[in-house]
Amino acid sequence: MALLLTQAIVRLSIVAVDPFVTGRGLTPFETGVCLVWVLVSLHSEGYRGFQKAFVPRTVARAFHLASAPRPLLVAFAPAFCMGLIHARRRRLVTSWSIVTLIVLAVILVRRLPVPWRSIVDIGVVAGLLWGIVSLVTTFVRAFRGNVPSYPLDLPD
Questions:
Q1: Could you read off the pLDDT of 107-118 as tens digits, one per residue?
Q2: pTM score
Q3: What's the rounded Cα separation, in Å, for the pair 52 and 133?
């Protein structure tokens, strides 16, 4: 999971810094919008999305899989940990809906002109950075015996 997040951060960072690399920069209005967007992204994506929901569920499911490995689930461990397979119907619908919305957002954001695409990407990178820090720290805590008590949403 950390590698997937890191890959996204690297790819988005290249677009995010484009206005600064090309010398265009941001106008005062664009800078204000960017700062507000970063704060919104940190709260909604980083804190609420990653730290409070995705990360504890992902780490709990990873440790469950490690304690009760099944060959097929181990082969698809990232999908299992994200709740995309072998989960209750509600978790499957929610997880796949989120993935679908992310893909649609990526398609739409790619159509935005500079600097607006860069502004959106700066906020997303901030949220992803929060997410990867949260993932690593939660995983380290879990290795030390403090596995998150988050519902695994496994099928009955």
A1: 999 999 999 999
A2: 0.92
A3: 13
